[in-house]
Amino acid sequence: MSEERHDIMDETSIRRALTRIAHEILEKNKGIDNCVLVGIRTRGIYLARRLAERIHEIEGKQVAVGELDITSYRDDRSTRPVSSGAACVDEAGQSLALQDKRVILFDDVLYTGRTIRAAMDALMDHGRPQLIQLAVLADRGHRELPIRADYVGKNVPTSKLEKIEVSLSELDGEDKVTIIQQRGQQA
User: Fold this and answer.
1) What is the CATH number assigned to the segment(s) 11-74+88-157?
2) pLDDT tens profile 125-156
3) How far apart are CA 46 and CA 58, in angstroms?
């Protein structure tokens, strides 16, 4: 099997999408007071940090950023490891207070919804937020659960044979979103 790759977002379009999402969050929440940004490990945390920077540039206020590890909450593992301590931590590795906060959960790609369901379970185990909103860089469809994003960088209709790959400079050395089409071998 071979694959065909097409970049659908570059560094500029990712930056613009995050700026637009920052403005939408500020508008919907009437500012950033009582809000916390929580990024799902791995790429969601880097996107949440970038979003916090945009909000600071726009609003002049800092917003707390947390990192969420959902490993022990995933339903696609045959054996679930026991959760060890707080699943949501701040930049210093301390447990992040979520009780009565407006949590904006950030992930790179929204697909079936199962990752987000696991993330919401993890959040609820560590406090009762006032509300949870979802922001994603790319929404590719094909939901298996009734979950939708409040903030979307780019809607990317895909087939089940396609895959969305997000590359971020913090991990991969460049910023881009690529759609990968699996192709069968030609005889």
Assistant:
1) 3.40.50.2020
2) 988 999 999 999 999 999 999 999 999 999 99
3) 19
